[in-house]
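Dear Dr. H.,

I hope your travels went smoothly. While you were away I took the liberty of generating a structure for the chain from your last submission, since the lab meeting agenda had it listed for discussion. I wanted you to have the full record in hand beforehand rather than looking at slides cold. The sequence, exactly as received, is reproduced here:
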Amino acid sequence: MSQENYLYYLEKAIESFKNKDYDKAMSMLDEALQQNYDVPQLHFWMGKIYSLELTEERLNTAIISFSQAVQLKPDYEEAYLERGRLYLKTGEVNKAIKDLEKVIQLNPSNKEAYLLLAQAYFSKGNKEKALNILKNITGEKSLDFYIQMAKILIETENFEEAISYIERGKKLDNNAVILYELSAKAYEGMQEYIKAIEELQTASYLNPSEDRYFKQIAIDLLKLAEKEKKQGNIKKSAKYIAMAVDVDYDVPINDFHKNILKEAIKSCILENQSKQALSFIDCIERIAQYEPEINQLKKQAIKNLPLKDKIIRLLTDIYTK
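The corresponding predicted structure, in token form, is as follows:
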């Protein structure tokens, strides 16, 4: 067969791949390989197709295909890049680093290689090297660049700098959920829990099927409660605990939190704030077993209510039992 025939099938395979018709692309590549097995591009595109399925068997087959490509063409930049990416996915970090450094040697302006190399060193625990690699990327920055920078800066506890990169990332894509997740982590590191909660709320709006945001919001509310307790704001602390329970019933409440609620209940009763006291009592009844002390405080709070509110409360307790 002539060279023109296998090139025809290669072009058809690439076209099919771009159109996401992967079965046809594979069929075209099989046809081309039967005509000329020693064409590196054919093995490269085989690897691209195999790498779409994230199973161990398929990823290993993709790595073999990319390896055949670089064996036939030792300066095949794209094949080294794709193989390095797969080595990262399969946990072979040292092999990934070797491939990605080869890419940079072949093309020092390949930004994706720098990003992946930073990920590789980060996964090895060498955060400073990963950070230095990213900081040396010049020219126009991608969303992935800002995401990786933020991740590493958060891990190295450079929270304010992380926020600055996240904000730049939002200018590129204001709907990227990962940016709000990272922003929340950075604000949590700075103990700015209200801002963290706001970022998590946006993340939950963008990805409503994900319930872990609500779990983290509840945890941040508890941290706010602990912060307010340290400052002597018992009732404000109790409000945050009650909010945390409302957001996530399974939020980890311990005796420390229960004692804050009890202290707030007693303070409200002394200040004739019976409705507020009862809201804290309702919260503690949801998370704790029956306690005679709470029952006595509840009776006292109801007793101090105006007659109309007292009747409503008593009726509510009857129908909810």
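Two observations you may find useful: Residues 244-321 form one domain. The chain has 18 helices and no strands.

With kind regards,
E. W.
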